[in-house]
Amino acid sequence: MSAEKTPGAGTARPGRRTPLVIATAAIVAAIGITAAVGFGGDDKTPGKGAGPIAEISGGSDSTKAATVLDRPFTKPALVLTDTQGKTYDLRERTKGKPTLIYFGYTHCPDVCPMTMSNIAIAKKQLPKADQDKLQVVFVTTDPERDTSAELAKWLPAAGDPSFTGLTGDFSAIQAGARQIGIGIDPPKKDKNGSVVSMHGAQVIAFSPTTDQGYVLYGEDATIEDYAKDLPKLIKGENP
C-alpha cells in the first residue's frame, strides 16, 4: 500500500508505506508486502472489507518481480469514464487483450508516476505489433481531483499516450479494486491540510486467453523486469 501526501507548503513527506493489500502470507513473502484484513487504516474489525484470496504458484522466489497466482483474479466489473469523457466498460473493452491494471492517482509524488514510466519504457522495447496489443489501464483512486481532463494531461507525461485512464464514482472504484485484492481508502486531509491517499501499489496482469488476472507485480518492479516479462504476458504465458 502506498501511503502518500500531496506535498503542501512546509509539509514533510510522511513514511512511504502503510500496507492495505488483501493477500495470503505467500504473497507477503514473495513481494515484501505486509498483509492486512480490512481496508481502513484505523479499522480493527476482523474481516471487514476483506477481499479475495490469491494463491501463488511455485512458492516464493524473491529473485523474481512477478508473482504467478494459482487462483487468478476475475477482471473487475468496472464501468467508468475514460479520458475523453466516454463510458468505458473494462471487461468489454479489454476482452481477449493482454492487460495491465493499476490503481493510483495523479498527485502521487513517486510510486504512481514511476510505475507508469517503467511500464511505458518497457513497452517501447516491444515490436510494434505487440505494443499495439498491450492494454495498460490506470484507474484513479482520487476521482474528485482526477477528472477525465486531468488524466488526459497526466498519463502521456507520466507514462504513454496509449494508456487508458479511468475515473468515476469512488465506491465503484474501491469495489473494483477489492475484486483483485487491492485495498484503497478515500483520500482525506490531515491536520496540515495535505491530502493523504492510501492505495495498494500492485500491477495485475490479465491474460489475453483467459481474461484472468494471473500475475502480480509489486511497486519495486523495474523497467528491466517488465521488459523481460511483457513478451510472455502478451501471449498469456507465465513470466
Please tell me about this protein's structure.
- With 239 residues, the chain is of the alpha+beta class.
- It is 27% helix and 21% strand.
- The strands form 3 sheets. The protein has a 6-stranded mixed β-sheet, with helices on both faces.
- A hairpin with a 5-residue loop joins strand 3 and strand 4.
- The longest helix is centred in the middle third of the chain and has 13 residues, at 111-123.
- Residues 4-60 have low confidence and may be disordered.
Features:
single chain, alpha+beta, six-stranded mixed sheet, three-stranded antiparallel sheet, 11 strands
* Subunit arrangement of the protein: single chain
Helix content: 25-40%
Shape: globular
Q: What's the total helix number?
A: 7
Low-confidence runs of at least 5 consecutive residues: 4-60
